[in-house]
Structure formats: structure tokens, C-alpha cells
Amino acid sequence: MDEPQNAQEREFENQAEGDNLGFVQEFVLFLRENKKWWLVPLIGSLSLIGVIAALAGSSAAPFIYTLF
Which residue spans traverse the membrane (predicted)? Predict the structure, then answer.
């Protein structure tokens, strides 16, 4: 009772069986495919703020406070 699959279902199964990409690779492919390059400075700025916030609770805090 196998019904023939349409091309969209076969493509979905082929994608599911393929290699898993990493988060960064998948994000870059998303940016390239959808032309969302304005997200790059936004994500970069948020990442920088996150790194500074993480270091603020460590022994590097005195060095970070001199930047401001």
C-alpha cells in the first residue's frame, strides 16, 4: 500500500538524512539565502555585550571597568 511520494516529500527526506550543519554554518547559510546581512552587526554587538557581561563577574573585572 505504498503511495508514490511527491517531489517535496522526497526532498524533505533527503534533507533529513543529510549531515547536520553546525549552528554558525546554518546561520551563515540563512544570511546568504535570505539576504539578511543587517543581522551581522546586531548579533556581533550582542555577542560583545555578552562577553563583557560574562567577564564582569570574573577576575578580569578591574580591567574591563577601566575601558568605561
Answer: 37-65
Q: Is 16 domain-assigned?
A: no
Cell of 61: 573585572
Contacts with 45 (C-beta within 8 Å, 6 or more apart), sequence order? none
- The cell numbers describing 64, all together, are 574591563
* Residue 60 domain boundaries: 21-66
Q: Encode the chain (68 residues) as per-residue pLDDT tens digits.
A: 455 568 878 888 877 777 777 888 888 888 888 888 898 999 999 999 988 888 777 777 777 667 76
Residue 41 to residues 20, 45, 55, Cα–Cα distance (Å):
26, 6, 21
The CA distance from 52 to 68, in Å, is 12
